[in-house]
Amino acid sequence: xxxxxxxxxNQLLVTGATGHLGGAVIETLLKSISPKQISVLTRNEEKRAxxxxxxxxxxxxxxxxxxxxxxxxxxxxxxxxxxxxDQGDRMQEHKNVIDTARKKGVKQIAYxxxxxxxxxxxxxxxxxxxxxxxxxxxxxGLTYTLFRNVLYMDAIxxxxxxxxxxxxxxxxxxxxxxxxxxxxxxxxxxxxxxxxKETRENRVYHFTGHQTYSFDDxxxxxxxxxxxxxxxxxxxxxxxxxxxxxxxxxxxxxQKIVNFITDIRHDxxxxxxxxxxxxxxxxxxxxxxxxKKVFGL
Length: 297
Description:
By secondary structure, the protein is of the alpha/beta class. It has helices spanning 20-29, 45-53, 66-72, 90-103, 125-140, 156-160, 165-168, 184-195, 215-226, 237-246, 251-265, 275-280, 287-294; strands spanning 12-15, 38-42, 57-60, 78-81, 108-114, 143-149, 170-172, 203-207, 232-234.
């Protein structure tokens, strides 16, 4: 095992360690550092015990449990804050982690934000919370690393209705909007590589794919992969809303989806950067290979 060259980074705390992104980060970290150098925070005792048995410093708690956060940050040099879900008060949860990091003398905080063109014109205000978190981190005075991640390619099935879309087609109010989709696992890998760097300075990474795709491109790729004719139809937002209601999707969920799609329609996720390729040391997985993986084709 290659030991971490940066001697000052003796302990890294990964929050959200049991999620898909956190898991990808840890998998890559373990190729370079020992589990003893990694602390994890999880809300599940069984998972905490499993981490502990493998040599990690594992702690039970969540972003609302300041005592648990303080315990998990003892001796920690760098904290990776994986953004909270939107079920609770996400901003307060993030502030709890950032404030605790300052209190415990953490030297660096990293945060999983979003790669979007213009924070001031977002339809999806839930995304604006990522930028508010960035602001709070910068104002904290902590050395920071901001990972601005594009929309996961893994989320495509959720947007188009899963495997049912292979039969009925894709109906979304996305126009010809494009997204620089990338796989979540590759973002996690790149984040770990960035955290393992020797330099300790304020950094912002934009992790995106190396090209953009529309939902028409997605339909074409799925057609080629499955041999079934998958068509994309650009529908009005009002029509999409009625379609979702007909499938008994709760209205708050429909609104969230519409807001996401509206930002895609306006090319909020269409910027392309080289940061992901640079950290991976290879080109990110393209659309066709990515869809093959996420749909299990």
